[in-house]
Fold this protein.
Amino acid sequence: MTMPTEPDRVERMICHDDIRQLAARYCWALDTLDRALLADVFTADATASLGRGTQHGFDEIWSWIHGVLAHLDTSQHLIGSQLIDLADDGRSATSRCHFTAQHVRRSAGKDTQYIVAGRYDDRLVLADAGWRIEHRTLRVLWTSGNPDVISPPA
């Protein structure tokens, strides 16, 4: 195995940081319901498996996320333990990280919180505007609280 040169190492470190920032922007976009910010996270033709079925294209991804989160009082998505594998060409990557997502809806009754924890598995590409998610799979590992919190109010 050959060791990367110093410029290659620096470029790889920059890519890793850019991908970590992309993951953080995803969380902020969800918690603020910021469609424009979320559009800067995914490719226009991205796909995602975020719970039920597969969403095709950014508009379907946004529709799914907005439908789950818009009726909440607040949400907080936290990520950690991120692993990033850059392809040799430096133009694609895979990433996985753990997440914990807290959802709060005060009108849900006595138990107003629902926590979902799991991991995101991503395929990423380096586009002209920077790193973007080409496909995201959400894998739930555990939940706690009232699942009715994320159900749209009747």
In short: The beta strands are 42-49, 55-56, 74-86, 92-104, 113-127, 130-145. The two ends are 60 Å apart (CA to CA).
